[in-house]
């Protein structure tokens, strides 16, 4: 009788062990499924964000506009170094195609930039400006739209005073004191900058 009870108890314990193992596995699998579900939804939500967070298809810290991504720097570089910095982020100093885009940059520059900011325009003299868009520098893009501040672009008396070559003052930036219209300035000056990553 004792032996029988011992067998029954052993079977009962074995059943408990098996049940415990099954429920333990189920809990573990459930936990894994839950984690996978969480990350899938997190990634999905991240990619779907637009006005309330990081825009779809853009890296964190970039802004989305008309299908492209824009980076507003928090540090200053010369025009050339700014272009190189953008290139390292698979982008280029931004070009501006129309008034709507210029006003967009004006509003966001006021929000993200503390002063002036380099954009992708550069010229060989004070009247011949084109867009240099990173990897396409060898084939400059025609500047069909402009948003110059009053009496700009111009050759500066400072340029003449220091006998600087014309090309040295022919990099374009958005100008805070003129409501973020454009000015040409010495390319060696250090300013914040705006990168554009083409997504369309």
Automatic annotation (TrEMBL):
<keyword id="KW-0812">Transmembrane</keyword>
<dbReference type="InterPro" id="IPR016186">
    <property type="entry name" value="C-type_lectin-like/link_sf"/>
</dbReference>
<dbReference type="InterPro" id="IPR050111">
    <property type="entry name" value="C-type_lectin/snaclec_domain"/>
</dbReference>
<feature type="transmembrane region" description="Helical">
    <location>
        <begin position="12"/>
        <end position="39"/>
    </location>
</feature>
<keyword id="KW-1015">Disulfide bond</keyword>
<dbReference type="InterPro" id="IPR018378">
    <property type="entry name" value="C-type_lectin_CS"/>
</dbReference>
<feature type="domain" description="C-type lectin">
    <location>
        <begin position="65"/>
        <end position="196"/>
    </location>
</feature>
<dbReference type="Pfam" id="PF00059">
    <property type="entry name" value="Lectin_C"/>
</dbReference>
<keyword id="KW-1133">Transmembrane helix</keyword>
<dbReference type="InterPro" id="IPR001304">
    <property type="entry name" value="C-type_lectin-like"/>
</dbReference>
<protein>
    <recommendedName>
        <fullName>C-type lectin domain-containing protein</fullName>
    </recommendedName>
</protein>
<dbReference type="InterPro" id="IPR016187">
    <property type="entry name" value="CTDL_fold"/>
</dbReference>
<keyword id="KW-0472">Membrane</keyword>
């Amino acid at each position: 009788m004792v032996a029988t009870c011992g067998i029954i108890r052993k079977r009962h314990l074995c059943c408990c062990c098996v049940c415990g193992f099954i429920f333990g596995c189920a809990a573990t699998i459930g936990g894994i499924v839950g984690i996978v579900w969480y990350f899938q939804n997190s990634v999905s939500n991240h990619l779907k964000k637009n006005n309330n967070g990081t825009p779809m298809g853009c890296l964190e810290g970039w802004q989305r506009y008309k299908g492209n991504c824009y980076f507003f720097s928090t540090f200053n570089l010369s025009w050339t170094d700014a272009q190189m910095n953008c290139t390292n982020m698979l982008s280029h100093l931004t070009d501006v195609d129309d008034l709507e885009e210029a006003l967009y940059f004006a509003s966001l520059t006021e929000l993200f930039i503390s002063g002036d900011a380099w954009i992708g325009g550069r010229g060989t003299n004070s009247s011949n400006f084109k867009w240099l868009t990173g990897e396409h520098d060898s084939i400059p893009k025609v500047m069909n739209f402009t948003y110059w501040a009053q009496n700009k672009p111009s050759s500066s008396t400072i340029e003449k005073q220091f006998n600087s070559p014309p090309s040295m003052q022919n990099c374009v930036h958005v100008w805070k004191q003129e409501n973020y219209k454009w000015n040409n300035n010495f390319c060696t000056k250090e300013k914040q900058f705006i990168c554009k990553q083409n997504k369309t």
